[in-house]
């Protein structure tokens, strides 16, 4: 579909699964997809937050699915719940993730496994289950992984997170290679420094805050709403020939 068609970014009638949809970046992406026309299957461990109300406010439906992606046990149930709620699946946003901080000399197996299980293992197996649904539907589909600046950089004191997010970049390419011919687009978004609950401590540390903002060419922290355009683009027919790409949404951080 050519970009001269104003409906290129229209997602009316599509169904999107968004993990970690209750807060922060996940909530913003879920609401953006809903505003573009998607019904949302929101996956969270506990409370769904205000995301259902925000989705309803833009006129779309929300299915609340509770699942802990620390294991792959709920993966098939998530896809099944989406199909039961809305009849199909068109988009998966793998946003759920955790982080553990510890010096590499002291890093524990527990902190390694916890992060790898959520951020990489469950991401793969939920992608697999969703792609199988795309194949059953003979519909194609869109998978959008959430990578990180640490998919490109090393970071410090976050060994398992860096390993997992580097893995997300590689896995995005691998799945694109295998599934592109079946009209399944697999891409990723790598957010830069975003103003969310996870970065409150950094932003409240005046010295660290100043150091970070000084290195961002855009001169400000990102907002969750900065992911709205990119996620809609990657979920829509506008990106039908984009495969295996990780899109940095970072205010220019990686360009420095």
UniProtKB/TrEMBL annotation:
The entry's keywords: NAD, Oxidoreductase
A matching Pfam family: adh_short_C2
GO molecular function: 2-dehydro-3-deoxy-D-gluconate 5-dehydrogenase activity; 2-deoxy-D-gluconate 3-dehydrogenase activity; NAD binding
Reaction catalyzed: 2-dehydro-3-deoxy-D-gluconate + NAD(+) = 3-deoxy-D-glycero-2,5-hexodiulosonate + NADH + H(+)
SUPFAM superfamilies: NAD(P)-binding Rossmann-fold domains (SSF51735)
Keyword set includes NAD: yes
InterPro entries: 2-deoxy-D-gluc_3_DH, NAD(P)-bd_dom_sf, Sc_DH/Rdtase_CS, SDR_fam
Enzyme Commission (EC) number: 1.1.1.127
Transmembrane segments: none
Gene3D superfamilies: NAD(P)-binding Rossmann-like Domain
NAD in keyword set: yes
Family: Belongs to the short-chain dehydrogenases/reductases (SDR) family.
Protein name: 2-dehydro-3-deoxy-D-gluconate 5-dehydrogenase
Lineage of source species: Bacteria, Pseudomonadati, Pseudomonadota, Betaproteobacteria, Burkholderiales
């Amino acid at each position: 579909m050519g970009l001269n068609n104003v409906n290129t970014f229209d997602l009316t009638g599509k169904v999107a699964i968004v993990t970690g949809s209750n807060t922060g970046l996940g909530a913003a992406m879920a609401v953006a997809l809903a505003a573009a026309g998607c019904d949302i299957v929101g996956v969270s461990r506990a409370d769904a937050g205000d995301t259902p109300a925000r989705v309803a406010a833009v006129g779309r439906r929300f299915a609340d699915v509770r699942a802990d992606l620390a294991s792959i046990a709920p993966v098939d149930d998530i896809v099944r719940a989406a199909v039961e709620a809305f009849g199909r699946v068109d988009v998966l946003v793998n946003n759920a993730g955790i982080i553990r901080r510890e010096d590499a000399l002291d890093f524990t197996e527990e902190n390694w496994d916890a992060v790898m299980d959520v951020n990489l293992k469950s991401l793969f197996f939920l992608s697999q289950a969703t792609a199988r649904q795309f194949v059953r539907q003979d519909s194609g589909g869109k998978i959008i992984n959430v990578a990180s600046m640490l998919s490109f950089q090393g970071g410090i004191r976050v060994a398992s997170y860096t390993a997992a997010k580097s893995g997300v970049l590689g896995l995005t390419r691998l799945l694109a290679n295998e599934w592109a011919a079946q009209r399944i687009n697999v891409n990723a978004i790598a957010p830069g420094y975003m103003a969310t609950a996870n970065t409150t401590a950094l932003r409240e540390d005046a010295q660290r805050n100043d150091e970070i903002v000084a290195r961002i060419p855009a001169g400000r922290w990102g907002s969750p709403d900065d992911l709205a355009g990119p996620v809609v683009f990657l979920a829509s027919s506008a990106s039908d020939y984009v495969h295996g790409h990780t899109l940095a949404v970072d205010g220019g951080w990686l360009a420095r």
